[in-house]
Amino acid sequence: MTSQKIFPDTLLCLMRHGAIDAAKEKHFVGQINPPLSPSGRKQAEWQGRQLMNIPFSSVWCSDLKRAHETAEIVCRNRGLAMLSTPELREINLGQWDGVAMSQIREQFPHLWQARGENIGHFRPPGAESFADLQQRVVPFIRHITSQSAGNTLIITHAGVIRVLLCHVLQMPLSQLFKIHLEYGGLTIIKDINGMSRVKTVNLYSALLTPDNLIKERKMLLTKHHSYSSESSEGRVSCCPTMVI
Fold first, then answer.
1. Pick from 108, 161, 201, 240: CA 20 to 30 A from residue 219's CA?
2. Domains defined along the chain, listed by start
């Protein structure tokens, strides 16, 4: 998976924050500010151990609680300065933020349909579109990586990582939900021979259980992929053996 060079001379690690307490039904979660759940803290601890041997020149995170807490856990005992910023926040969902999806679908069926027909550019009332989000985060991430003397770690949100991957891979935003990102999942981008290459997408703790490693290997062998796998839903997931 390649694109033109985006992040010069740096290893860019992007981590989705750990889990939050889940509601009984699906809600829109944008810039509302819940903390990590106990399982989210465990995910952050696991990822911190995986990253222990990678030297980072800079560590950035969203200033929302769930990302900031994840970054604190990952950076614990490493002596790394951590910079938080609203530029790395999740998409602003305006009046829909924190509202049950079923409620929006029932009360505003015309808006729900419009969202489904143009997911990349649809704006809920008072909100950002994913195109707006991409315009916010891509220049900012390009700037901070260009200023970094070495590897960069960014702890942020699924929407941020998805729109960045769409940019790097030159994918239309209409396809962004084909990129599956678990809580605590790690994505790695590295420049090779002047091109930005997505080395790993969505590496997370549960994926590396023995049973899941066997399933992943069988999937890769079946589909003759050496780099990434695609689920039956067409979602991009990671190959654990590609971690660098």
1. 161
2. 2-206 (3.40.50.1240)
